[in-house]
Amino acid sequence: MVMVKSAALFAQGIMGSAPMLLPIVGMFAIFYFLVIMPQQRRQKKWQATLAQIKPGDKVVTSGGLTGAIMSVKDDAVVLRVPPDNIKIEVVRSSIVTLTTAEDRP
């Protein structure tokens, strides 16, 4: 008899906590679809853009340097920075803005 009562109380406890977990699960799902998923899409798109950079593209780095790409290496690019045409090697991940030759008038 005691086992039956404890099993019933256990089942009631599980069923009693399920409605409290539903809003938390719902908030997580909304957060995932509104914040995490779009950010992952943007990140994949930006990584694909960085993989396709080529000489002649104009870029801005995270340090504020603007210049044209002279050459592309595995994980770095060589920039030509005006006005003295200084060549600087920077890593690809430091590029924050990209203007391709086709984008310019």
Structure write-up:
The chain has 105 residues and is of the alpha+beta class. It folds into two domains: 1-52; 54-99, SH3 type barrels, CATH 2.30.30. Helix content is 48%, strand content 27%. The protein is built from one helix and five strands; from the N terminus they run H-E-E-E-E-E. A five-stranded antiparallel β-sheet has the order 4-3-2-1-5, with no helix packed on it. A hairpin with a 4-residue loop joins strand 1 and strand 2 (66-72). The longest helix is centred in the N-terminal third of the chain and has 50 residues, at 2-51.
Short key terms for the protein model shown above:
single chain, 105 residues, 1 helix, 48% helix, rod-shaped
Unreliable spans are none
List the secondary-structure elements in sequence, H or E. Answer: HEEEEE
| Largest sheet, strands/sense/barrel | 5 strands, antiparallel
The average pLDDT is 85
Describe, in short, the structure shown.
With 105 residues, this protein is of the alpha+beta class. Helix content is 48%, strand content 27%. The chain has 2 domains: 1-52; 54-99, SH3 type barrels (Roll).
Secondary structure topology:
Blueprint: H1 2-51, E1 58-61, E2 66-72, E3 76-81, E4 86-91, E5 95-99
Antiparallel strand pairs: 1-2, 1-5, 2-3, 3-4
